[in-house]
Amino acid sequence: MSRVRRFRNSNFQLALLYAGLFTTSILVLFALTYRTAADYAAQDEADEIDVEFVAIQDEAHLAGDGYLPQIIANHLRQRSSEHAAYLLEDAAGQRLAGNIAARAPQLGPQNLRVPVDGQWRELRAHGYRLANGDYVLIGQDPRALRDMKHLIARAFSVNAAITLLLAVLGGVIISSRALRRVDALGRTTQAIVAGDLSRRLPLRGTDDEIDRLSANVNAMLDRIEDLMRSVRQVSNDVAHDLRTPLTRLRQRLEQARRRGDATPQELREVLEGAITQVDSILETFGALLRIAQIEAGGRRRARTTLDISALLSGVVEDFAPAAADRGQLLLAEVTPGLQLSGDREQLTQMLVNLLDNAIRHSGAGARIVVSAHASTAALEIVVADTGPGIPAPERDNVLRPFYRLESSRTTEGSGLGLSLVAVIAKQHGATLALADNGPGLRVTIKFVKNGAAARRSDAHVTLSDAFVQR
């Protein structure tokens, strides 16, 4: 892993940002602490000088003003180790006592730079005027304040350095771990881009952001792989199932072209047969297009709440004559007032395909029952017939485009009816199940409602608009 990549890593940059914020916070805290401590120490020094002056005044009041030089000398001796400074001048400016040279009287707080004990020192001082006119100057070396400032500065400097170092090290460690995961993801995605759709992004089971992103990408790859597999399967099925009718169509037209003695009636019959075959091919392509559009979301419309009971009854009524022509009994056992949120056109297409499939493959004398009912958690639509049914191993296969049972190859159809039903059911979040009806086939479509239960009053069931899960 290159150093440049590590520096460009977002985790490392975020760690540096946090380090900068922490360091800035420490600097601000240092400035506030330093200023507060300095002000407190300066005030403490001023208070200490005031206390010293009050003590000198009290002693002079007891002993008399004539003892002021002796009092100053005593205080100077007691505080010699503190590098204290004292000056006593009379009203004429004559120096009477102290360890600094006479100077022009100046009242109040002041900063001095004067020689004390043979060494130039920076002093904090305060000048006072006594009742007898004498001038007293008391000063002291702010060494404690300087030491405290140095201690605070050193402590904060060390803390800031340690914080910055730990932040940088943490950024390097975090970015290294993150980059290892990103590199693993990158290698996997490169293999996927190269065409290996079986590869999946690694998961650590930590349920962190990268794991959730990887899981979503893996789900997307599963979907893409399914679609690619479907495309390959459909391509093969189209090539296999449409090649035969197209070849027959060409042979029929070629024979008509070669026959020079064909009568107009014979040519008309050839053309009508060709048109029929072309219509069948166009119908097949139309069904494929509808499946592709529904799967891709191209035909998704706004969901509306519709009366599924009325829709079922209408479709059954429309197919009743076709069933009667084949000697079949078509019945509807639908609970009135069932409502469902969905695409009316797609749901109608689904029901039409189910009934058409049942009527076409059940045979004469079959009994076909369309039923619908709702519970507190689901709505089920069932189409059951007493025909030959579908063997259990073939029930998943018949949902694939163009797949037809051997027994059904002589029956009209393209093998796309149940495929379209499966796609529409999936689009509406419903489950499609094929089962044995004993005898015959039982097709169940279940629209499951998550959360609140359906509301039922007498014979009326209302399912919320959120019933169909996208």
Task: Give a brief rundown of this model.
The chain is an alpha+beta fold and 470 residues long.
List the helices and strands and how they pair.
Blueprint: H1 3-8, H2 10-63, H3 68-78, E1 85-89, E2 95-98, E3 108-116, E4 119-129, E5 135-140, H4 143-193, H5 209-258, H6 264-296, E6 304-307, H7 308-325, E7 329-334, E8 339-342, H8 344-362, E9 367-374, E10 378-385, H9 417-427, E11 430-436, E12 441-448, E13 455-457, E14 460-462
Parallel strand pairs: 7-9
Antiparallel strand pairs: 1-2, 1-5, 3-4, 4-5, 6-8, 9-10, 10-12, 11-12, 13-14
CATH-defined fold name of the largest domain: Heat Shock Protein 90
Rg, Cα atoms, Å = 49 Å
Low-confidence stretches: 451-470
Name of the CATH superfamily of the largest domain: Histidine kinase-like ATPase, C-terminal domain
Helix-strand category:
alpha+beta
Briefly, what CATH class of the largest domain? Alpha Beta
Helix content: 40-55%
Broad shape: rod-shaped
**Main sheet makeup:** 5 strands, antiparallel
Mean pLDDT: 77
Order of helices and strands: HHHEEEEEHHHEHEEHEEHEEEE
Helical segment count: 9
Strand order, sheet with most strands: 2-1-5-4-3
Approximate strand percentage: 15-25%
**Alpha carbon gap, first and last residue:** 43 Å
CATH architecture of the largest domain: 2-Layer Sandwich
Q: What's the structural domain tally? A: 3
Number of E strands:
14
